[in-house]
Design goal:
256 residues, alpha/beta, 5-stranded parallel beta sheet, two-stranded antiparallel sheet, 9 helices
Length: 256
């Protein structure tokens, strides 16, 4: 079921829909749809479109951050969510994605602000269990150790945001540390924060969110360069669409 969910998510990304539609148009020799899809692809690769799609999520994250800022000192732990890791076999060690690195640096910054008085919980499991590689949570912990954080705690079985929240709670319960409204600082990307907050609050956590990084901007100011099509813009739009779909799906399943 988990694999099916991931496949459906990939098929619903803007690029997948465009490619499938374009292939259908080409096989039927329809020129007008092809031109339409090319225009749509251009629009999805420019900064103004990206800003329109990302702004609702990231502006909400900013507001939620500010709301909990003054009370964040009550937190008992910093929960760091994984953001992706790449594996290279015998060629190199596992490498965190830029997203995951930004989250890790933010968690370390918060850890230093608390002078090491509260632990970092790294929550991320196996993206590809069949490869026989370490869970991302262990890679996060190794990177944190290089940053001189030697007491981080690892939750290494979660496969998605819902399981991040559920298994972190179960781990705290097993350690006898859990109590209702357990206060945490939740660290993830601004795009991912709204869905993450909802998942952790559903499990009974009191969440003080901290965005590791933003992909968009608070202002809608553009130059001529903003209208140059870039693959990065399409990728970030796809990430935002994934969050919108994920939020709706979790809502339907009662996970948030």
């Amino acid at each position: 079921m988990f694999v099916v969910q991931k496949i459906i998510g990939l098929l619903l990304s803007p690029l997948s829909i465009l490619i499938i539609s374009l292939l259908l148009a080409v096989t039927q020799y329809k020129k007008r749809p092809i031109l339409l899809y090319m225009l749509l692809l251009y629009l999805l690769c420019i900064e103004p479109t990206k800003q329109l799609v990302l702004y609702p999520l990231e502006s909400l994250s900013y507001k939620l951050e500010k709301l909990g800022e003054e009370e964040a000192s009550q937190a008992n732990a910093i929960v760091l969510l994984g953001g992706g890791v790449s594996y290279h076999g015998d060629w190199d060690l596992p490498r965190l994605s830029l997203d995951a690195l930004a989250r890790t640096y933010k968690a370390k910054q918060l850890y230093d602000e608390f002078e090491g008085d509260i632990p970092i919980i790294s929550s991320a499991g196996l993206p590809n269990p069949e490869l026989g590689v370490p869970a991302e949570g262990l890679v996060l912990a190794a990177v944190l150790e290089n940053m001189q954080v030697y007491d981080s705690v690892v939750e290494q079985s979660s496969r998605n945001t819902f399981e991040n929240a559920l298994l972190t709670k179960e781990m705290l319960e097993a350690q006898g540390a859990w109590f209702e409204s357990y206060p945490i600082i939740l660290v993830t990307s601004a795009l991912h924060l709204p869905r993450s907050i909802a998942c952790f609050e559903k499990q009974g956590f009191k969440v003080f969110p901290k965005a590791s990084h933003y992909l968009g901007s608070s202002s809608f100011v553009y130059s001529y360069r903003s209208f140059a099509p870039l693959p990065r813009n399409l990728l970030e739009i796809s990430q935002a669409v994934h969050e919108y779909i994920g939020f709706a799906y979790y809502k339907l399943r009662g996970r948030i």
